[in-house]
Amino acid sequence: MNSNYINREFSWLRFNERVLDQARWSTVPFFERLRFISIVYSNLDEFYMVRVGSLSEQKGLIKAPDNKTSLTIDEQLKGIGKHVKKQMEDLGAVYAQWALEAQTYQIKNTQIKDLKAHDLDYATTYFHNMIEHLLSPIIVDKAHPFPHLMNKQVAVSVLLKHGSKSMLAFIPIDLNLLPATIVLPKKHRLEFLPIEQVVYDFVDVIFKDYTIVEKNIIRVTRNADLDWDTYSDEDLDFRDTMKKLLKKRFRLSPVRLEVKFESDQIIKSLLKTLNIDKDHVFVNTAPYHYNFMNDVEKFLSQRTKDAFYPSHAFRFHPAIQSKEPILSQLNKGDLFFHFPYDAATGLIRFIQEAAQSVKVVSIRITLYRVANVSKIVEALIQAKEAGKEVIVIIELKARFDEEHNIEWSNRLEEAGCTLIFGVEHMKVHSKVCVVIEKDNHKTKLYTHIGTGNYNEQTARLYSDFHLITADQSIGQEALYFLQSIQMGNIERLNRPFTSILVAPFSLKQQLLLDIQKEASSSNGHIILKMNSLTDKDIIDALYLASQAGVKIDLIIRGICCLVPGQKGLSENIQVISVIGRYLEHTRAFLFRHEGEWLSYLSSADLMTRNTEKRLELAVRVNDQAVKTQVRLILFSYLDPEINHYRLDEEGNYLGHRSDIDVQVKQYEFKASPAEERSLWQKLKDVITKNER
Question: pTM for the full model?
Answer without folding.
Answer: 0.92
